[in-house]
Amino acid sequence: KSGKPYLEESAFEALEKDFQEVINLLKGDKGLEKFRIEYEKLHAVMKKSHENEKRLMEKCRELNAELVVNSSKVAALTKLSKDDRGTISSMKTELEKSWKMVDTAYEKEQKAKDTINSLQEEIARLTKLVEEGSGLSQGQEYNIQDLLKLKEEITKERDQLLSEVVKLRQSLTQATEQQQDTERAKNEADQSIMQLQQEIHLHQNEASREARKKEKMEKELKSILAEMDNKQAEIKNLQQHIQRNKEEQLKMEQHLKEQKILSERAGKELEQLQMKNNKLMQESEQHSVMFEEVMQDIQKKTAELKARDDEVTQMRLEISKLNKIGDVLQNKLRVAEEQKVDAGHERNTLKNEISGLERELEAAKKQAEIDKKAIGELVREKNMLSKNLVKATSATQKQINLVKLHEQTKKNLEEEIQNYKNEAQKQRKIIYQLEKERDCFINETNELKQKVLQHLKDSEIREMQICDYEKKIEESMFKLKEQQNRCEAVRTERNLYSKKLIEAKDEIAEMKKKLKTVTHQVDQLKEEITDKEAALVKAHLEHQRTEKEKESLKAELLKMKTQALETKHFIDNQEAEKIKLLKIIAEADAERLMQKKEFDQVIHERDILGSQLVRRNDEVALLYEKIKIQQSILNKGETQYQQRIEDIRLLKMEIKKLRREKGILGKSVANVEDLRQEVHHMRKELLREQTRCKVLEEELDNPLNVHRWKKLEASDPSTYELIQKIQRLQKQLISKTGEVIEKELLLQEKEKLYVELKHVLARQPGPEAAEQLQLYRHTLREKTKQLKVLSSELNMYESQSQEYKHEIEKLANELLNVKKKYLAQKRKEQQAKEKERSLTDTEPEFPRHRSDVALFTGGGFAFSRPLPKVTA
């Protein structure tokens, strides 16, 4: 696997910069402070994981280096084993050759023995012949001389063969010894290879474990980075949401301004309508005066016109009623405008409250900056303490270096003692580090206590703020209720006005019908008047003038209708404003619910802080227990250290013993030279004996002994025993040297194992690292659980907001449908009225053939039935 870390330094620095930017952005928002704390905790966890990753990478590099060294050792050993195999094969071939030489020598020896036996037989036969015969012939003497020469040659060959046999036996023993040595070396090399393979396997297992740990850490890093990305996305979403809310607020303010402008315009239009209405009233009064004059003229002539005048007066009364209704509507409009002004005042008060909250936020920010400065001062003090610590450690290091320089002048044994002292120094450093960590833990506990106290103070402040917010919410609820009551009163008044409008419209329609009937009757009367008297022509003209005035009144009525439609539009606008106000009320309700939820969240956070306090107390108790356990472990370590010192002393004793044995063996090896001298001396004696043998053989050739036919028994055991002794001693020497070599190798292996065990013990992480890892995992699990809870709450709120949006859309759609239905009904009613008008307009105004028409003659006396009275 590649030794590259998951995150390079540049990427990590970029992440640090992003983190600082995000924190600087989040510092302003008090609502996102919890999120910022979680985000900082996640960043701290990511930092720790990055440092752990670095440490693991360094460990992996060290293990890889050790693997490379071990692989090179294995390669060297494999080369040595291959070379040993080659030497073994060459030695085997040499052995085979030597065995072949031995076999040939043995065959030659057998042949020589056979020839010697045959010659001895011939000698015996010749001696018998000599004993039998008195003398020998010249041929026989020559044969005897030839035989003696042959005997000498054969004895020489036998001696050569014996020497060759001895040499071959020596070479055989040497070859067997070399073969045994090579086999031993091979076995030792195989054992070392096996050990190295086991070590490589162990290192590979460690490397795989470290790789798995690294993969786990990388996965955790990836998950943390993904969580950080999610958090950044959430921050961006929240910022966008805040911007949207601001934009919506600006839009609402613009909308309110537009509504104000529209209300002012409506007020101006109302004033114009009132002016027009007053003008119309004046004109109607003038027309009424004129009409009264005409009616007086008509009353003189007919009594029926008086009834018509009564009906006209009734119409006037109805018009006055309508004017009164208009006044009431104007008063109600004024009341609505006053309510608008009150709503504006309430909005201003809310704005003042918002500005007060913003001031409180600024005060909280200032407090946070003061806290930051205090934290910076504490960090500086910490840095100063760390610098003093570094200086102290450098001073101690200098003193240690001086002690080392003084101790280097001592002997080899003192160097070994120095190594043990260095080990003790390491142990002291470990103890010193443990004490430092203990102090760090104590400081952390104190800091945690301070933080807990600060959190308690913050919780109290927040509880006070919550009480204030509750009071404000109650006040806003009271104001909301008042606004709702006002809206309900306006609604009831609007319903009443709509009912009165409908009634007025119905009355206007009835009056129109009556007017039509009256016009028909007036036309009939006109014909009668024209038929009766020419004097009434003037009155008829005046009546036509009244008809024109009536048409002008009709036009004015149409204008009034248009004005009524305009008032309808104004009412519709007011309804839209009412809907907007209802929306604002709904938004206020939503804000109240949000504040309630925030209050619940604050309570939940307080409960969580309480539980965290309990957990922290439990963790502190656990830390104290762990400190006790570590102290007990330290005590055990001291006892084990004493035991190790005793083991070292025993090992020193064993080393001394082995050195003594080595010296004794060296002395025995020094006696080898004496043995060699003895061998040389024995060889000299052998040569003497050989010369003696030669002399004796010469004496046999030139016999001086008369009784030479007698058999003489002679043996030379001393030389053979000496040879056997030499061989035995050589074998003992070889075995002793082999044992010495084996013991030296064992010593070297033990020393190597001791050094490797030291290194392994120095590398192995203590129980603190495992405990820290467990703590980090536990905290990570808790944070992931909290994040899941927060994400579930976010999803819940989003789903609720979507549901509210859907409900708002449904209500808007329903409102639109109701409006459409209302407009459709209005259109249908207008169409029906227009149809009725068209029908009434198509009817003939002056019917020619009527049975109930009165006929007049001469002086205007009727022949037919009298006219029926028209009832209103």
Automatic annotation (TrEMBL):
Keyword tags: Coiled coil
Gene Ontology CC: cytoskeleton
Chain residue ranges for the region called Disordered: 827-851
Residue ranges the record marks as coiled coil: 102-290, 319-451, 480-591, 641-699
InterPro entries given in the database record: CFAP58_CC
Domain Cilia- and flagella-associated protein 58 central coiled coil: 362-666
The protein, known as: Coiled-coil domain-containing protein 147
Organism listed in the record: Antrostomus carolinensis
